[in-house]
Amino acid sequence: MKAVVEVFGWLLVLQGIGGLLNTLFGWWGWAHGLLVVNVLPFLDGYEIFAAVVIGVLGFALLAVAGSVAKASGRTEEGR
After folding, report:
1. How far apart (Å, rounded) are the C-alpha atoms in residues 79 and 51?
2. What is the pLDDT of residues 26-73, one digit of tens each?
3. CB 24: neighbour CB atoms within 10 A?
4. DSSP 3-state helix, strand, coil percentages of the chain (rounded to 5)?
5. 47 vs 5, 7, 11, 28, 64, CA distance in Å?
6. How far apart are CA 49 and CA 47, in angstroms?
7. CA geometry: angle 31, 32, 34, nearest 5 deg
8. Does the predicted TM-score (pTM) go above 0.85?
9. What angle do CA 71, 73, 79 make, to 5 degrees?
10. What is the C-alpha to C-alpha distance for residues 75 and 66, in angstroms, rounded to an integer?
11. What distance in Å separates the CA atoms of residue 47 and residue 36, rounded to the nearest whole number?
């Protein structure tokens, strides 16, 4: 469970950072179709805000993954 939440968290963080950088600077023209903020038509005009929200949700998932590991009594050394 922890690994799945961490993977989704990192994916959301990367989507948020990538979407924010691509919207602000247009660096990654080749990745336009890979970023969620560019694919969803209802986000037109709100790409920056959506990218920030996606990134924050990714960090929240990473925090949840860390708290799940602490709550279960497991650490990285004691898997």
Report:
1. 34
2. 877 788 889 999 899 999 999 999 999 999 999 999 999 888 767 777
3. 11
4. 80, 0, 20
5. 24, 23, 17, 15, 25
6. 6
7. 65
8. no
9. 125
10. 9
11. 9
Q: Please name the amino acid found at residue 67.
A: S
Which pairs with CB-CB distance under 8 Å and at least 24 residues apart come from 48-52?
48/20, 48/23, 48/24, 50/19, 51/15, 51/16, 51/17, 51/18, 51/19, 51/20, 51/23, 52/16, 52/20
Amino acid letter, residue 77? E
The encoded tokens of residue 8 equal 């989704």
Neighbours of 50 (CB within 10 A): 23
